[in-house]
Amino acid sequence: LQCVRHSGDANLSDVLTMGCWTACEGFARDGGSGVDWTARVAADSGYGRFEVMQAGRSLGEVSWSQLGGHNVDNALAVVLASELSSGSDRAALLRALRGFRPSVHDNPGRSNLFLLRGGRLLVDFAHNPDSVRHLAAMVEAWPARRRVLLIGQAGDRDDNLMRELVRAALK
């Protein structure tokens, strides 16, 4: 059994230094010291096109309609986990990633983008401060005259969590 970890996550690194019972292999979209699994993102794609890289070698390209760098990270985690498991079919996996769509029918509440009256409406169930930060960074990169943020959460969330979510969005 092996551990797949995001090498750029400082909190996770801190926890793993306390001890881990299995070998960990890391990935990071932007690379880094000792990271073999990375992505080469096409500069003009808004994270919509990237190559999966291992030790500087391209394993294949993904072109998709997913939004944000955090989804490239998620794809790298899937590819790495698949590679570490027995019997993975890399070509089939890359085809599946290319076909993954953030549609309201296939993946409701996950990066569902609607174009309305010349504007963009993004619906995503960002359920913690880190996911809200990722979404805010993605939306901040879009050209816009103004941005409106509406935050709501499912269930009975306490006021402290709601304040944390708002702070995360405004950073």
SSE blueprint:
Elements: E1 3-6, H1 10-17, E2 24-27, E3 37-41, E4 49-54, E5 57-63, H2 69-84, H3 90-99, E6 112-116, E7 119-123, H4 129-140, H5 159-170
Parallel strand pairs: 1-2
Antiparallel strand pairs: 3-4, 4-5, 6-7
Total number of strands: 7
> What is the H/E order?
EHEEEEHHEEHH
The largest sheet, given as strand count, sense and whether it forms a barrel, is: 3 strands, antiparallel
| Unreliable parts | none
Class from secondary-structure proportions: alpha+beta
Q: What is the residue-averaged pLDDT? A: 85
Beta-strand percentage range: 15-25%
Strand order of the largest sheet: 3-4-5
Count of helical stretches:
5
Question: Percent helix among the residues?
Answer: 25-40%
Principal-axes geometry comes out as: globular
Gyration radius, in Å:
17 Å
Distance between the termini: 38 Å
Give a description of the structure.
With 171 residues, the protein is of the alpha+beta class. The protein has five helices and seven strands, in the order βαββββααββαα. A hairpin with a 2-residue loop joins strand 6 and strand 7. The longest helix has 16 residues. It starts with a strand and ends with a helix.
Q: Which features characterize this protein?
A:
171 residues; alpha+beta; 3-stranded antiparallel beta sheet; 5 helices; 7 strands; 21% strand
Q: Could you provide a short overview of the structure?
A:
The chain has 171 residues and is an alpha+beta fold. The protein is 34% helix and 21% strand.
